[in-house]
Amino acid sequence: MAESPMDTLGRLYSKLKRRHQLTRVWSDYYDGKQPLKFTSPEFATQTGGIFDGFADNWCQVIPDVTVERLMPMAFRLEDGTLDKAAWRSWRRNECDVEISLALLEALITGRSYALVWKPDGVQTEITFHDASRAVVEYVPGKRRVRAAGLVIWVENDRERATLFLPDRVYWFSRDIGRAGMPAHPSDWTFVSSGAAWMLEREMSNPLRSVPLVALENRSRLNGKPKSEIASVVPLQDAMNALWAHLLTGSDEIALPARAVLGMLRPTREILDANGEVVGEEDLPIGKFRSNRLLWLESPDARIAEFSAADLTNYTAVIEVVVRHVAAQTRTPPSYLTGQMVNISADALIASEAGLVSKVEEGQRFFGAGIREVMRLDALADGDTGRAEALALGSVVWRDAQFRSEAQYADALTKYKAIGVPDEALWERIPGVQPDEIERWLRMRDDQAAAIVGGNVAGLFGPAPVEAPDPDTD
Question: Which InterPro entries does this chain map to (predicted)?
């Protein structure tokens, strides 16, 4: 028997809440909210929680280094031409900005989601959602065929949900007081979409496909998408513990310590109300330390000194841990240590080879999801032919390798020498978008037309008029 929409909602919502617990952990580590681990219970008792909230946060660096090199620049159709309509829709929905947030979320938690929908029947919307607010389910045995999608959000005093199936779309709502409790079908009720053009609790899906697309980071065939900071977290905990011990040591044993041997502690008499001596007590040592006073009354007293602790033992281990982070995440050491002295351009490129390969790998994974998003965008506009061409096309990404302008100019000049067309060369310039290439093409055509028409002055302006020689009449 086919599953009811209410049962599908309950199952997907439960899966969403289970995932949320793990994604919350990765998000907290990225934000620097890291518990202090790998320390003894005695250490926590002695320090009194002074290191709560402390973190030498490397979990933020790793995703940031990758996402800054993931920038879609255009969409190429099956025949190799650039899709201007797709790029206009991309810019209209501010996806050129939102995609960086979505990809960063995917790098941190393993996945994020893009929703393509036409709420008013006129203009298509592309929105992005994090893994705590959206979930996609696939047909068993078919990793790329979406069977259902769920998006949840909070509005006023209600938690709301939209369930997307290949043929239908449903809207649900429940009281926000129960939002934190395990989902149960009886918690939810059908509601209308709230749109002026659709006041039913369900509608036919015009795309005939689940419009919620997962942007997954390096998923395995038999596993789940991977967070970029998953392997960094244990090393991050180790570094935090090492820094805590180092800072504690710097406070206690970073300076030489002196001790008085062979002498009793200084004391003072305790007097009662009549001035009679009733006892004695030790004087606080802290007073003598602050006043820098010292006197020795016993002839047998002597001074002993304890050398300061060598804290470089801690920093040496921390540097090893940082190198492990660099190796495991393929992050150039220059990003983590900040040491760049007398490094040639070739050496710098070689040091970034691992990161560039990782980014190019991410372009393939995320590119598949982005192509599907733009295919759905074309379907929403009723252009099935362009949708098919986009599905077989590609995403044009910014060059994953950072180079200087001189390096790009040299490379493009060499490509030009072997006959590569200007348009292809312009596409390889970082940051150049399709509309700017179109403007350059028009400018080139105008120049050619001026030359053919003999309007050289239109290109270079009128010839300068020489001033008359004052010595001649």
Answer: Portal_protein_SPP1_Gp6-like
For residue range 341-389, list pLDDT tens digits in order. Answer: 556 666 767 778 889 999 999 999 999 999 999 999 999 999 999 999 9
Q: Which secondary structure element, helix H or strand E, spans residue 360, and what is its range? A: helix 353-380
| Residue for token pair 């733009």 | 374
Q: Distance (Å, rounded) from C-alpha 214 to C-alpha 365? A: 11
| Euclidean distance between CA atoms 376 and 374, whole angstroms | 5
Using CA atoms, how far apart are residues 176 and 161, in angstroms rounded to an integer?
Answer: 12
145 — phi, psi (to 5°)?
Answer: -100, 110
Exposed e or buried b per residue across 305-322, where buried means at least 16 C-beta atoms within 10 angstroms of its C-beta: eeeebeeeebeeeeeebb
Q: Is the dihedral of CA 29, 30, 33, 36 positive or negative?
A: positive
Task: Write down the domain spans for the chain.
Answer: 8-31+63-228+337-402, 403-460
Distance CA 105, CA 93 (A): 19
Rama region for 94: left / alpha / beta (φ>0; ψ in -120 to 50; rest): left
pTM: 0.80
SS3 category, 66: helix
pLDDT in tens, 61-84: 999 999 999 999 999 999 988 899
H/E stretch holding 73: strand 72-76
